[in-house]
Amino acid sequence: DCSAHDGHDHLLNLLLIGDSGVGKSSLVSRFTRGKFRPDPKPTSTNNIAARHVCVDGKVFKAQIVDIPGNSSYSDISTEVLSTNGALIVYDVTSLSTFENAEKWYKELQIANGEIEVMLIGNKSDLVNDFVTTCTDAGKELAERESLVFIETSAKDNKNVEKAFVEVVTLIFDKLI
Ligand code: GDP
Ligand code: MG
What we know:
single chain; alpha/beta; 6-stranded mixed β-sheet; 6 strands; binds magnesium ion; RING-type domain-containing protein
């Protein structure tokens, strides 16, 4: 059991980026504390949380930086330089958050081409026949840029663990 582990084999820095309100803090809360709060406070300073993850028999300590909603690219340039992986998050019910995800991606590529980047379409629980979603747009961007794309729900705890384990795996694959 990984969570019972004291030490770790590798320390990884992860960064969550994306528009305000897409669910970044909720994903971190779900992943590190197993909780979802329907009315979280907006993030006002960088929030740092950590959790152990086991991949291939190795123990990783994933240190996660969750940025405030109004961050601009220059606000996070220091974090970008020291991060191993970035999860770019958008809200599957909001096209503008997807368009901004694409912008964030381009800026990340320019800043640090070594980062493992993953695209997350959050709030999949809100998808139904009556809601237009940007799932296809996410898939297309991911295919074009060879990114891993996962749809998550922090609310229903769907694919949250999977998304974080996947990005740790991508980073680990590159380390060895
Ligand atoms: P952040 O600004 O990106 O950190 O977003 P927050 O985590 O603060 O979430 C913004 C709002 O979206 C809050 O009201 C959350 O409860 C809600 N939210 C976050 N994740 C989900 C999800 O997976 N499904 C639904 N339905 N709501 C979510
Ligand atoms: Mg937040």
